[in-house]
Design goal:
By secondary structure, this protein is α+β, with helices and mostly antiparallel strands. Helix content is about 25%, strand content about 25%. It holds the Pfam family Stress-antifung.
Length: about 280
């Protein structure tokens, strides 16, 4: 598959964010070959699991069966498996425009990549190419917890033909999409759309939260992304900010998502979670 030129340019300027919390380090890595990002949490108080241990077996069971429920057609999976210290929690999120079959394919591919690049880690996150899907797992409760770090951002190397107007349109578009996305339900919190930019440009945008977040939490996460846009992507024709709980992207004259059909009809996902402060420590 040929990568669109804006994505190629965007991939040239990936800025890696190192998050320091409680004197621990979580480093995000960019895989140039697969155009993907991943975090293998190697914090000292999250000891690695050993091969063929109970945790390892629970992790394999959970990840290999994550997408087996074909009744889920809204792109959000959250399951746990095991007990006590060997319990594993997982979240799978697909970009809101993906078909269910494409979503499962993306998550299954991410599973294979994640277990390869993060062997023996008790916590890890993997974002596929163009954030088509995100897969994460942990030995702690992650459902219903808004996590804004670690994060990464990138931009297209090209400047807009009218920086001032472009910045205004991008801000207006992403603000509008945020207000729409936060009103989603426990299945999907996603919005995409476009606005005319400097002639003859069209600016396309997309925002999404993991739908286990409350409206307030989703808005808070996306607002942090929006505040990052001026420093990472000022006057650029494309950019994105990606966090574990939400992501935001815009591109100029490059439709990087597919128009979404009517919302799926299905039982809402379980959104019971925890108010525990997120911490890579």
């Amino acid at each position: 598959m040929v990568m669109p030129i804006p994505s190629l340019l965007c991939s040239l300027q990936i800025l890696l964010i190192i998050t320091l919390i409680s004197q621990t380090i979580a480093v995000l890595v960019y895989d140039k070959i697969n155009n993907s990002h991943y975090i293998c949490d190697q914090s000292n108080n999250k000891a690695n699991y050993t091969t063929n241990s109970t945790y390892h077996k629970n992790l394999n069971t959970l990840l290999t069966t994550l997408t087996s429920n074909t009744d889920i057609n809204y792109g959000f999976y959250n399951f746990s498996f095991g007990e006590n210290n060997d319990k594993v929690y997982s979240i799978g999120l697909c970009r809101g425009d993906l078909l269910p079959s494409d979503c499962r394919t993306c998550l299954n591919g991410s599973r294979e990549n994640l277990t390869t690049v993060c062997p023996n880690q008790r916590e890890a996150i993997f974002w596929s190419e163009n954030e088509r899907c995100m897969l994460r797992y942990s030995n702690r409760l992650i459902l219903g917890v808004m996590e804004d770090a670690p994060y990464f951002f990138s931009n297209n190397l090209n400047d807009s033909s009218d920086v001032v107007l472009s910045n205004e349109v991008v801000t207006s578009l992403l603000n509008d999409l945020t207000s729409r996305a936060v009103k989603g339900d426990s299945r999907i919190k996603y919005a995409a759309g476009s606005l005319p930019g400097p002639t003859p440009e069209v600016i396309y945008g997309l925002v999404q939260c993991t739908p286990d977040l409350s409206q307030t939490e989703c808005n808070s996460c996306l607002s942090e992304n929006l505040q990052q846009i001026p420093s990472c992507c000022n006057g650029k024709i494309g950019g994105r900010v990606v966090r574990p709980s939400c992501n935001m992207r815009f591109e100029t004259s490059f439709l990087f998502y597919q128009p979404r059909a009517s919302p799926p009809r299905s039982s809402p996902a379980n959104t019971t979670g925890s108010n525990t402060k997120p911490c890579y420590c």
